[in-house]
Amino acid sequence: MTRDSLFPLALLVAYGLAFGMAALGASPLGFDDHPGQLYRLWHVVTRGPAPWAWNPDWWAGYPELQFYPPGFAYAGALLQRASVNALSVSAAYQALVWIAYLAPGLTTFLALARLLRSGWLALPGAFVALTLSAGTTSGVEGGVHIGMIGARLAWALVPLLLLLLVPWIEEDRQLPSSAALLVAAILLTHPAAMPAAVTLIAVGALVRPPRGARLGSALAALGLATAMTAFWTLPLVLRLEHTRALAWGDPPGVGGGFGASLALLALIGLARARGAGRSAFVVVLFPWAMALVTLVDRFALEPLGVRWLPANRLADGAWIAFILAAALGWSGARGTNGHTARRADAEPRSRFQRREVLVGLAGVLLVVLFSLRPGTLTLWPRAADWPSLSSVERGLRLGDLWTALREAPPGRVLFVRSAVPLVYGAPGATEWYRPHTHVTALAPVFAGRAIVHGTFTHPSPIAALIYRGDAGPGPITRLAEQLDGRSLFGRPLESLDPETFNGYAERLGISVVVALDEDASRLRALDDNRVFAKRASPAPFLIYVRRAAVVLPRAVAPGRWTITLQADRDGWVSARTAYYPLWRARVQGEPLATRRGDLGDLEVRLSGSGSPRAVDLAYGPGTPEIAGIVVSVVGGVVWLVLSGRRRKLA
What we know:
The protein contains 24 helices and 19 strands. By secondary structure, it is an alpha+beta fold. It has a 5-stranded mixed beta sheet, covered by helices on one side. Strands 12-13-19-15-16 form a 5-stranded antiparallel beta sheet, with no helix packed on it. A 3-stranded antiparallel beta sheet has the order 14-18-17. Helix 4 runs antiparallel to helix 5 and helix 13 runs antiparallel to helix 14.
């Protein structure tokens, strides 16, 4: 990056910092998904980085990060540990949110400044990457405001991968070993960005001969990245039946006029890229390849039932590709063989630099004009729309709720809703999409209580039980918020009867139920219930407490729990925790048979008399988990050896 690029970079950073101070501040956000994402970081810090580590606090237990990309939580935990605990978990999370907000703009600027050899010409594209929302998961609205931090961080790594690949694309060099490491980081942070990374490397391999050898090196790098992440990906693939695909969301949008403008500029870039260098050619081909990948996923794979990477998530990769190509179309592709470069050498540098400044600023101005259409870009926050966690706690009197839950009888807390609304009485204030917070996801941290529900849409089988009434296979196709106050256990809330509700509560070990005052007229299952009784509670919450005690597994050592159970007539009894194949059960040292119950819970088979028995439960890694670690270690050693050899040859 040249010295001339420092001033436009400073402008971009200054704007980003100003937005961040107005929207993010120093306290963690309490809006929408942020509390639950903060909990995931807390989970890693307190229970360790193993993806299969059991989280007993959500959904009757779940291997929380085995089926959710762990990269952002790992990054936050590393940040917290690197500070030697000077940063709290909350402070580390907030720092990560800041990084996630700024990262797409910065990485896009660096990539475009390298390609265009001008920071001013790179500025419009970087500004779009920083401010884009347009219904994308990785945009400012989805990735920062709502809290899908991992998606935005992975999105930001795609332009960084392009920057890393430029020497390999332009010159007859080996694919840098750091590319495998970056692809591994993308995979761990959010697999939805992997198709963009793979497509970018594939296009980069095909733009120059020898194409076969270059494709081979690209495949080797991707294989090495997969090997280094096998500690997560291998158990993920082999245990896939124990999670549920999150297939909610509309088909990917095209962004209206703004998306059409990007596509038009990308076409102009395609026309201009001839002779402008192979890197520019890769960039202008990239969006059309990603558009094809997204269409194949939407119209070929999803109808066949492949719902793990929905097209509306893959579309984010197409968006960043179109942003990069549109920047070349607007500013002009400049390369060592391009006519633009020759003209630049022929003209006085000062005149050409003035033109760069005008083109860059004009591009930013056009972007600002497009922001007049709501939802396309997020240029400035309204403070009320970005509430901090502390303000949410004060506004909802959560301190009183946490106290009430701490004083309630032992057992799990069932939240009737996934979220708590942040607005009341305003137009649209009864719609599911009104501003809300999943702050109840933090009940395990602040109240010391394990919970069921009270979090965002989740892939666990027990979550599927809450959302649709069964824990069986099949994707979760509706957002949890769309069901809030309307249904529970797959039934309309007002038609759920006490007997049915009590059956679920017994198997899931629920001793406390928390609803909202908005739900009062529909709580037939709790109003005349012989098992649960209403107790005094802080508004806007309604609390119902179980009359008799409920027993849950009690931790006695790392990876070990115990629970006293009494056999049913057929010998099978619920252990009141979610099923997962890593569980082992014993009574006085003798192994017990285990199985998945019809509600997705762990059942053990007790023989002999019907008297209570102390059951010991052990949880630890199995063959796929250990094999994944071995493959990752081998992959890491191979990467280190290759990197060392290339440094010696350099």
